[in-house]
Design goal:
Number of helices: 9
CATH class of the largest domain: Alpha Beta
Strand order of the largest sheet: 1-2-3-13-4-14-18-16-17
Distance between the termini: 33 Å
Number of domains: 2
Helix content: 10-25%
Radius of gyration: 23 Å
Bound molecules: zinc ion
Number of strands: 22
Largest sheet: 9 strands, mixed
Length: 435
């Protein structure tokens, strides 16, 4: 229960990827890990922990071992969730009486649950300083906007299915006529500067939904952004709880922009992870051969939530390779390797979970649906190490309010901690030795 409450308060404090990364960075700093920047020279010491952010929306943390940095144990998750982003020219007027905000989709989301609930704004603002530009995070943190439904009387057929148009149906009501010009004012105020000093911003709508524990025995959690802050937070928790590594580097990566294909400078399809690994090798004086040997002996858990069997639509999932909330860590398989798990990485993780008594289950899409991709295979194209895709079973993925299992959180944190504490050496190709 304590874990669940901690997760839910982390999610509430993290309305955007920027806030999630700030909260993760704060926790890392509080634990004694040192903040690095990409622009400085890195001096790394054995036995010490570090972290570096990119774009303030992705973060990589790592613990240098006392002994040899002969492998990496990497957990990756994502910081972003689908939402609506406010356009640069942010306001729209309707018949001179209403002021709306002009928004567009970020990622693929379910539209319907965004209607008829209080929404707010959060993100980052670039402000003018005496000698340049600086980033400030903002969160308006009050019930501010609504995307109102059309009344049933004006759309009698809506319950037979409706095609939403993002430019027409999804604009949130911001205020009356007098709200004109208010958006910039609000953002500047939240950033603590005058309107002229706002030089740029990335502002998103977020739902003002209070996370809740529900179900007959409190067995489910309902919250925005469970995909993927649940895995990001679990990774952080495990990273902080893991034993100080004697050998091998523990790494936690939380990447932005998974929901839009990861192809940004800070996404999983960037060189961020590769760059950090290279710089660790350089700072520790490793030879190129040492670095290759370390990569060969490394494992990555790509952690992103999975689809539980839907109570109203069990037919949407495979008859046997289907997963349920509260039944353990989900290991995802896909023959086309959109999920990276294969016999080797599955065997490695099965052994680890069995040795530690942690429940797990297996997911594959129905053979007639393509399903979604995630970070693992994208990251693998830059840093080629043994990877498997895991997650926790949840309902209503990409709704502004999702449902997951309360018990699963503990399984994930324990499984990830066991992963960080595992010592695996490479034998011949296809052979792994557990110390
Ligand atoms: Zn996800």
């Amino acid at each position: 229960m304590e874990l669940v409450n901690d997760l839910l308060s982390f999610i509430e404090k993290s309305p955007t990827a920027f806030h999630a990364v700030k909260n993760i960075s704060d926790a890392l700093e509080a634990s004694g890990r040192k903040r690095l920047t990409e622009g400085e020279k890195w001096e790394l010491e054995a036995g010490k922990g570090y972290f570096v952010t990119r774009n303030l929306s992705s973060v990589i943390a790592f613990d240098i071992p006392e002994g040899a940095a002969d492998s990496y144990r990497v957990i990756a998750a994502h910081s972003d969730s689908p939402a609506f982003k406010v356009k640069e020219n942010a306001e729209l007027s309707v018949r001179g009486k209403y002021t709306q905000l002009n928004v567009e989709k970020y990622g693929g989301m379910l539209f319907a649950p965004w209607f008829d609930r209080p929404l707010s704004l959060a993100g980052r603002v670039l402000v003018k300083t005496e000698n340049g530009i600086k980033t400030r995070l903002v969160d308006i943190d009050r019930d501010l906007l609504v995307i109102p439904n059309v009344a049933i009387h004006m759309n009698r057929e809506i319950n037979d299915g409706f095609k939403y148009n993002a430019q027409v149906d999804m604009m949130p009501l911001f205020g009356s006529e007098s709200a004109k010009g208010g958006y910039k004012k609000l953002i500047a105020e939240a950033a603590g500067v005058s309107e002229e000093d706002v030089l740029g911003c990335d502002i998103f709508l977020y739902p003002r939904i209070k996370p809740a524990v529900i179900g007959y025995e409190g067995e489910f959690i309902m919250s925005p952004r469970l995909d993927d802050l649940e895995c990001a937070w679990s990774g952080l928790k495990a990273f902080l709880a893991a034993k100080k590594p004697e050998s091998g580097v523990n790494m936690l990566c939380v990447f932005d922009n998974e929901e839009v294909g990861s192809g940004t400078k800070q996404g999983a399809d960037s060189t961020f992870l590769y760059d950090v690994m290279q710089r660790i090798a350089i700072a520790l004086g490793m030879s190129a051969e040492d670095a290759h040997r370390a990569a060969a002996a490394s494992f990555m858990l790509s952690a992103d939530n999975a689809h539980a069997v839907h109570p109203n639509h069990p037919e949407k999932t495979d008859a046997e390779n289907c997963v349920f909330m509260n039944e353990g860590i989900v290991i995802k398989f896909n023959a086309n390797q959109r999920y990276t798990t294969d016999g080797v990485s599955a065997a490695f993780f099965h052994k680890l979970l069995k040795d530690n008594g942690i429940p797990f289950q297996h997911f594959a899409n129905r053979s007639d649906v393509p399903g979604g991709g995630t970070l693992g295979n994208i990251s693998g194209s830059h840093v080629s190490i043994n990877t498997l895709d895991i997650g926790l079973a949840q309902l209503a993925m990409h709704s502004p309010c999702e449902t997951a299992g309360a018990k699963d959180l503990g399984y994930m944190v324990s499984g990830m901690e066991a992963f960080y504490n595992a010592r695996v050496r490479l034998g011949e190709d296809g052979e792994f030795l557990f110390d």
